[in-house]
Amino acid sequence: MNRFLLPPALLCLAAASNLCLSATAQDVTITIKSTPPESDSSASDKAPFTGNRPAVDVAILLDTSNSMDGLINQAKNQLWNIVQQFAKAKKAGKTPQLRVSIFEYGNSRLPAAEDYIRQVVPLTDDLDKVSEALFALTTSGGDEYCGAVINEAIKRLDWSGEPNAYRVIFIAGNEPFDQGPLDFHTACKKAIGEGVVVNTIHCGNYDQGVRGHWQAGASLAEGKFLNINQDEKVVHTHAPQDKIIIELNAALNKTYLWYGGAQQRRAYASNQAQQDANAGSGLSSRAAVKSSSVYSNVGRDLVDTYDDDPAAITKLKADELPEELQNLAPEQLLERIQAMSKKRAEIKQKLAEASRERQAYVAAEQAKQPAAPGDATLGDAFSEAVEVQLEASGFEVEK
């Protein structure tokens, strides 16, 4: 039972089907009726979890020195393909709570005293913020200190303490892995000691990556050594379903009821639209992610927040609500949120169906074409590591 004071204007919210109240002149007691938790009998014995959703924390460490424009472009173009892989994972029938962090290193614009390292975004479930951060990255020559940036990610990020969470670092670059003031052996051993796997992605010749200790770094932290061509062009296949996916994505955006200060609300809405635009021809992949529960805006959007914790809505001030909702009576506000939640669920279902049809179409088209030789990209590297490592952490991954 949660006990707290409610603003008088919000007392009627408790009339909702999932809230009961008793009131005195002194306080209001709210009891939230919860449904029994989903059974976790299907979860792996070696991978229990105690929270509402299993945890996945991913830190992506990108070399942003002069030669890495291709790597950054691949990250921008393939972000939503990468996130889709996590959206397909479940543990005990539950999609994970995905948090992503971005670090850049090796950029001469960054302070030498800080080893040319910058945390671009901390671990966050705000995937639009992650996309925004990626599209703001630029390159400039510098010194690439892999050991130092791994150590900084381990030290600075608030990694999940969930038992058997999937905690992972992907570090990508092309200079020798042993540069800088901190020995990579120390950093990689510290990472795995904290339960964080380190996958290394060398950009360039495979043998050069081995000689440059990228393979050794991955081995120390129980990760995979991966090799890509950072300049390989990313090709998005067009499909008949793209038109309906674009239309459904636009309809989905209209169901978001952003809250917070007026400037904050505008920023959330504007950034969602901007990241749709940034996705470009990869919007279908982004839309597929938005149809899943991996794309969540709890703490920013009324619908997601209400679905996660109905009582949280009662704590909001009127001026934190969208302008069109600020003058509604509490029961009317609740009705609007519930109606929007139902509408969003319907759109998401249609969007997920269209995305599956698109995926089947693309697979069939690709099967008709002769296998074309091509170098691996950043997205390919993630694909090679993620599924195997998620399954090792007790997740089931949809094929």
UniProtKB/TrEMBL annotation:
- State the Pfam families in the record: VWA
Which CDD domains does this chain map to?
vWFA
Question: What span is annotated as the signal peptide, if there is one?
Answer: 1-25
Q: Mind telling me which SUPFAM superfamilies this protein's record contains?
A: vWA-like
Question: Domain VWFA, which positions?
Answer: 57-205
Going by the UniProt record, its keywords in alphabetical order are: Coiled coil, Signal
What sections of the sequence does the record tag as coiled-coil? 337-364
Q: What is this protein called?
A: von Willebrand factor type A domain protein
Q: Which organism is it from?
A: Allorhodopirellula heiligendammensis
